[in-house]
Design brief:
The complex is a heterodimer of chains A (about 80) and B (about 375). Helices cover about 30% and strands about 30% of the residues of chain A. Chain A is an alpha+beta fold and about 80 residues long. By secondary structure, chain B is of the alpha/beta class. Classes of the chains: A alpha+beta (about 80), B alpha/beta (about 375).
Chain lengths: ~80, ~375
Amino acid sequence: MAREPQAFVVLGFPSTHDALDAESLLGDLGIDVVPIPTPKSIGALCGIALRIAPADEQRATAYLQSAGIGISAHATILDV
Amino acid sequence: MDDIVYLDHGATSWPKPPQVVDAVADALAEYGGNPGRGAHRLALATARMIHGARRDLAGFLGVDDARDLLFQPGCTQALNLMLRGLIAPGDRVVTTSIEHNAVARPLNLLAREGVDVVVVAADETGTVSAQAIAAALAQAPTRAVVFQHASNLTGAIQPVAEIVAAAHAAGALALVDGAQAGGHLDVQLSSLRVDAWACSGHKGMLGPQGIGVLYLAPDCRPAPLVTGGTGGGSSADAQQPDVRPDRYEAGTPNTPGIAGLGAAARFLAQDADVQRAEERRLARRLHEGILAIGGFRVLGPGPDVPRVPIVSAVHERLDADRLAFVLDREWGVAVRAGLHCAPWAHESLGTAATGALRFGVGWRNTDAHIETALSALARLVGEA
């Protein structure tokens, strides 16, 4: 049986260091965050992007901005 | 190797803390993925280890933003990046007569390419005054002051904060060779206000060989020395990424070296002050003991003056190379003789013809090591 695609938000970062800083910060905030290979569709960024639930998007981006972590791109993807 | 009295920490530290050895072994076993080049679990584990090591080192060295602390294949490479990335033909540079070859040789090469290199003399203790630097800066517009944090020959600690202030007052960059300072001194880079600071990982920092760090102040932007793959910014126009640390870390990194250096930073952070006080006490005992043997001139500041734990001596008639050889062969005491890759410094102190016998104290040395070295030296001098 095929798995049902789900919508996720993907955040891209300028460097792996930023992506891992962001993963740690979002984890501390209690947000479920999964590192994934950066989808080509969001541009030539570092190799690691972070996948979060759409419901967490606003809270996550506001928190990362306040912590000085630059988000280079974000997009909504359909994934499994 | 337990019978070695190892007093060559100025060249490299030995042994390494067990945590460092374990971290290197763990890296080879557990962190086999290529960091930043993928998001599978092995690549992620490696990237996380490097991320953690960078943050731990930044904390230990007082760097506000860990992205400004760059891993390099050693201090020499870091210094080359610093010097070649920031200095160009037509620039004027002020440096000192006490520099090591890792600074002197790149500057000599730059001088041949059209850089005006002005050398300020160190005093008889191997120390350079900020006033002398300021006087040299007053003579012409200058791109940078390039100087060591502490001497690999005399152990003298330079007045870094004062020299940085003099450089900035003249509109020059303050570029520092911290090879002998890291680990042995409490270095807080962001508050020191240096523009760039390079350090070995394997000396006082107690990490493996083949890894070093370069700190760049946030607004210091050298051209990269090495370009290539970084795992990110794989754009079609083949530009090196503009972001740190990626911009200055092209190529697959020395993962075991970084793991070991991160473990070393965590080890040092536990009781660095106690360790430094002990190193300084042993170096002072060595210094006073050598003077008591008679016939030796000890280079650098007197025993009461704080120094990194290096003590170099010249005997009035016995050859330093011969003394080092016999100390090793007959007494198991490992020291370094000769010019210590620092011919400028030896010329500055009048020891270019003789070289010197250098003792470098480190974290595992004991009173017994120092007394063995002193007894051996006294016997050799007495028998000669």
